[in-house]
Specification:
Number of strands: 34
Radius of gyration: 28 Å
Strand content: over 45%
Helix content: under 10%
Number of domains: 3
Largest sheet: 24 strands, antiparallel, barrel
Mean pLDDT: 86
Number of helices: 1
Distance between the termini: 38 Å
Low-confidence stretches: 1-22
């Protein structure tokens, strides 16, 4: 389980594919868990960048194109370094290497590495993954891909060589005059006979450049055999029907079919999936998705249904709400049971004034109410280094130790809301108080008479800054 969590966290740190540069970039994240009625820290991450490089993965709100990502885990009253990912780039900001290291016994130990090599035209000619051999103290190759390109920068060959499984393969690609792939031939490799045909796919397009047909073949006993044909029809640029037929026992058999309907804004409002009905020589409905959109084309409701006993039966539903910049504020999953929709899972998000996601709260509906399970926080800076991250500020708790009451003294650069959270040494949230901050010197009082004796950790959050400290209650 520990290794799974490590690999998951490393994967999150590595979510840094090349994205278009944003005006902001993630510099801090934090993940909390809710259990047995209280919150506790799970992990946090800090990212650093060079120059104006870096941005935000629009799908996950994670950091992209950073120099180093540092993962921290709670350890007593402090954060302990757990792992880090360090990246290098070329002069065009293309990622060259990404090295993951884990902290052990106060030392950084190599764990894994990925690398990319480009030619003078900027085409990716080699990429690979490596694992660290601690016995030999060397990097061992994992899977390596090498590519070649034509004069138009279209990839024409791609060789995959897996040094772990000793499996090697190659794709050979062909294009039409518009740069669209029309043939992809897949080869497997045998050490005795070399590359051998294995499969082939052909593609056809309409006058608008939309793919209308995908024809698949397999290689058997030195002969190409039919496998499957997927055909798509369009109304304008919208696909309306997709049909798959499968080669079975020497004849084409109908496989499955999907139809699509749209509103005036080309939003997909209904997609219906059918299976072949050999008994009635037609199509049998299987499932469908019904979507509803608001006036700004945001999907607000998606209902999934299954076809059973000659009628459509509700299965699952998702409901979404948005802010005025299309940021998804609320995402609720419901399931159908005993003739009614039952709440299941909820995601609530907040955004800053620039439209970037600042938090996600995850909850499950249990025992008639929503129970939180986890939350994520994100802090940003713009590419000029102007930080929205909650920078550290000096705080002081007094008297320390205390009995009935203590105060937190601090100074703020600007006025706004203030939140003070108190945790015990296990990281569990004990209490929270909300108040306000003025520009300049501030004091927050905390009644401690209800607290058990012992050491506590406080966390103060104010506009643009955060402060942490400890206080002893007698």
């Amino acid at each position: 389980m520990k290794r799974t969590l490590l690999l998951t966290s490393i994967l999150l740190l590595q979510l840094s594919s090349i994205f278009a540069q944003n005006s902001a970039r993630v510099i801090d994240t934090r993940h909390d868990l809710f259990s047995a009625g209280s919150w506790s820290y799970f992990d946090s991450a800090h990212y650093t960048y060079s120059g104006s490089r870096g941005g935000i993965d629009p799908e996950s709100s994670s950091a992209a194109n950073y120099d180093q990502g540092l993962r921290l885990i709670p350890s007593g009253i402090a954060w302990a370094t757990d792992s880090r990912t360090t990246k290098t780039y070329d002069a065009s900001d293309r990622e060259l290497t990404s090295i993951v290291q884990v902290m052990s016994g106060g030392n950084w130990l190599n764990y894994s590495k990925t690398y990319n090599n480009y030619d003078a035209n900027g085409d990716l000619i080699e990429s690979g993954g490596q694992g660290w051999d601690s016995v030999g103290a060397v990097w061992r190759d994992g899977e390596i891909f090498t590519n070649t390109y034509d004069a138009n920068h279209h990839r024409v060959t791609s060789i995959g060589d897996n040094h772990y499984s000793h499996y090697k393969s190659m794709d050979s690609l062909y294009y039409n005059g518009s740069g669209q792939m029309i043939i992809n031939i897949y080869f497997t490799y045998d050490s005795l006979t070399g590359y051998q045909y294995a499969a082939m796919t052909q593609y056809e397009y309409n006058a608008q450049g939309k793919q209308t047909k995908m024809i698949q073949y397999t290689r058997n006993a030195g002969v190409w055999e039919n496998y499957q044909i997927d055909s798509t029809t369009y109304t304008g640029t919208d696909p309306t029907t997709s049909v798959a037929i499968i080669w079975t026992s020497g004849t084409w058999q109908t496989g499955h079919r999907t139809t699509y309907e749209y509103d005036a804004m080309h939003n997909d409002t209904l997609s219906t999936y059918y299976l072949s009905d050999s008994l009635h020589q037609g199509w049998r409905p299987s499932s469908r998705s019904i979507a509803v959109y608001n006036g700004t084309n945001d999907r607000t409701l998606m209902t999934q249904q299954q076809y059973s006993n000659n009628t459509w039966q509700n299965s699952q539903q998702t409901a979404m709400t948005y802010n005025n910049t299309h940021g998804e504020l609320l995402y609720i999953i419901r399931t159908w049971s005993a003739g009614a929709w039952l709440d299941n899972t909820k995601y609530e998000s907040t955004f800053n004034s620039n439209g970037y996601k600042t938090s996600i709260l995850l909850s499950n509906y249990t025992g008639g109410s929503w129970v939180p399970t986890g939350r994520y926080y994100y802090w940003y800076e713009d590419v000029n280094g102007i930080s929205e991250v909650k920078k550290n500020i000096d705080t002081k708790a007094y008297p320390d130790p205390c009995r009935d009451k203590f105060e937190i003294a601090y100074s703020a650069d600007k006025a706004g809301a203030a939140t003070l959270r108190l945790y015990d040494l296990s990281g569990k949230l004990v209490s929270t108080t909300e108040t306000s901050t003025v520009t300049g010197d501030n004091h927050i009082s905390w009644e401690a008479f209800a607290l058990s004796g012992g050491m506590y950790i406080y966390e103060l959050s104010i506009p643009g800054a955060t402060g942490r400290g400890k206080v002893m209650v007698e």
